[in-house]
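For practice. Any example?
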Amino acid sequence: MPRTFRVSCKANLFLRVTGRLENGYHTLHSLFVRLDEPHDEMRVSPGAPGGGLQLHCPGLPELPLDKNIVSKAYVAHSRATGLSADLEIHLDKGIPDGAGLGGGSADAAAMLRILQEEAGQRALTEDGLRKLAVDLGADVPFFLLGSAAEATGVGDRLTEVEPGLDDCLALVVCPDVHVPTAWAYAALDDDAEKGYQWLTAQSEVDNGPFCLGRPRLENDFEKVVLSAFPELRRLKEWLFQLGASGAVMSGSGAAMVALFRRERRLEAAASALAAEGIRAYATGIF
């Protein structure tokens, strides 16, 4: 019997890159939150006996097992458990690629959870699963959790937290811009010595400025991304003009998360963005 899994994405409300390791990974300090929208859907059915994984993703090219992160999760889990479940998976992508919302990592984590169920008594321990997730990608361990988390290390040291956003409404804005993650990290490394002035407000109207109880809304990647992609800087400025109390780019971009105090302002902002052909999602944060 086919099963359908809803795969939620993430946002970084605070992201500071704190260093670079010899293996090329970067260390960070971040606040990860889960978002209801946008989301992917993963439909899982029993596969042909001995067929292993059959992955179908309309709109994306078919990738070999060593390239697609969902397939890589399958291979890694199979090697760790000695099991190769016969599964046919249809992945419908709603989370934009190159948006900084962790869509690929979220799909990989969902794949791991599905394989854990299939493995039964041979399933990995939670610690073993977490270690496997780290090897797949820095964001994957977060998606094994069910709540917001403060992250350090390469994103693998996670402490579950209460984000304290009960009085805020969120709008995730996904412009038709792709920011390559590898480029963003390289550009940030090159720009490490340059100064930058944070864009935290751009409105004469009192929108009830928002700040986190822990760190404020900010993202180190904005230093380089908003310079290289001026349309993203203009978008952030516009979000404040539309009434956002706070706005920040997620991950290495290009998605923006805007927080509002008043529902009517969020609705008006969503309508204005839609009129310009910019995708925006009113979403819950958890």
